[in-house]
Amino acid sequence: MSDAAIHVEHLAKRYQLGADRGMRYATVRDSLTRMVTGVFGPRPPSTANELWALDDVSFDIARGEVVGIIGGNGAGKSTLLKILSRITAPTRGRARIVGRVGSLLEVGTGFHPELSGRENIFLNGAILGMTRAEIARKFDEIVAFAEVERFIDTAVKYYSSGMYVRLAFAVAAHLEPEILIVDEVLSVGDARFQQKCLGQMESVARTGRTVLFVSHNMAAVQRLATSALLLEHGTLAASGPVRPMVARYLGGRAHAHYRPARLTGRPQVLDAHVVDEHGAPVARPLNTDAFGFSVRFVLPHHRAGVKLGMGVLAADGVVVFTSGTEDVAVEVPSEAREYEARVMVPADVLLAGDYHLALCIWDAGEVFDLQEPALSFSLEHGPSVLYVSGDRKGFVHVRCGWTLEPAVSLSEVS
Q: Are 220 and 42 within 8 A, CB to CB?
């Protein structure tokens, strides 16, 4: 624990889902009783109007470690980061943080809307404990990274969500926090800026600072993190090296058919399943046959420039290949309605094994829907002489050109 940048012990957070009609004002005795039982005693029994977003979570993160926090929606990831960033207090347990924390959790936190971008940079730096000279030394670098030079003296309440996030991330990453905490808020930015942010977080990690981040993008988690925490229903299900943690997360969410839990009112995937070469649903296609994916999605409002993409991931989350409407010059119509896309994978490309499908809808300024994974599927061995065993290494079958002929011996040459 002496080398821990973050020490979390029996952390729990309870939210009240609805007001109790019979609720009365608490007495001093009630408050003291709740405080004592919350710190030293067992958790009181849950009621129908309570939600434990976190329940008895404990872990240590060493200085200089880069940790990804993964898990499904409602697993407690964002709640954990809010507690570590001191935005909300835990119901039970404690979190000990050693070092200056810079956090970027959601659009709207950390900046004062009435102040300009310039003033907010200096305000955030002061909150981090930096001197005005230290902030001024980093100022030009922050503004250049955020690409908001023209609007730096404008009140941030007039910024678009993209501008806001660019500046907020630039401040959090450049003002030299000893611990950088980043949530999935980066999905607000476009793809180019996301790559820029990932590069900056890599630079932060190389300086020996601690990085803790939440993402549904397993490729980003594996690119940045050395280890991962897997949360499930508010509890810490597992922790360890990043690749087996990602594999466990993806495997636990394996399903052959995708449907969203709720409608978001934004461009969104509504349905996805695996199909054969004729478009009929198939459970376990052969790897020697063409197969593909049927994807139904919706544009709730007229919107031009929307793009649809997919990625096939191996069982451990490694990206095998990606494909999108841009690759084949297919333009998504802008009319508000539902659409169906079919993406076909040629025969004899993937080796037999277990895979996951990621789906994404975005435009030049924003990612609207990212499901990773949307669904999982298995490819069976097909009747091919190439597959002489079931343990062939790799992901793809590449039809290489081979020639074979008798070699000329040295004696024949002489």
A: no
Phi/psi of residue 175, nearest 5 degrees: -85, 25
Task: Give residue 194's Cα distance to chain centre.
Answer: 11
What are the residues whose beta carbons fall under 8 Å from the beta carbon of 410, sequence distance 6 or more? none
Q: Which of 177, 166, 14, 35 is nearest to 102 (CA)?
A: 177
Torsion from C-alpha of 232, 236, 240, 244, nearest 10 degrees: -20
Length reported for the chain: 414
Closest CA relative to residue 335, chosen from 244, 397, 239, 267: 267
Rounded CA gap, 250 and 230, in Å? 11
> 141 is written with which tokens?
């670098």
Interior/surface letters 173-201, b for 16+ CB within 10 angstroms, e for the rest: bbbbbbbbbbbbbbbbbbbebbebbbebb
Per the confidence metrics, is the pTM higher than 0.70?
A: no
What's the rounded Cα separation, in Å, for the pair 26 and 45? Answer: 19
How far the first Cα of the chain sits from its last, in Å, is 72
Cα–Cα dist 94/400, whole Å:
58
Residues 148 and 164: their CA atoms lie apart, in Å, by 9
Bond before 285 cis per omega within 30 degrees: no
37-48 pLDDT per residue, tens: 444 455 555 555
Token duo for residue 322: 């990606």
pLDDT in tens, 47-84: 557 889 999 999 999 998 999 999 887 889 989 998 99
CA dist., res. 77 & res. 70, Å (int): 7
CA 141 from chain centre, in angstroms, equals 26
Considering only CA atoms, which of 369, 366, 397, 367 is closest in space to residue 381?
Answer: 397
Q: Which residues contact 388 (CB under 8 A, 6 or more apart)?
A: none
145 within 8 A of 172, measured Cβ to Cβ: no
Tell me how crowded residue 230 is: count the other CB atoms within 10 A of its CB: 23
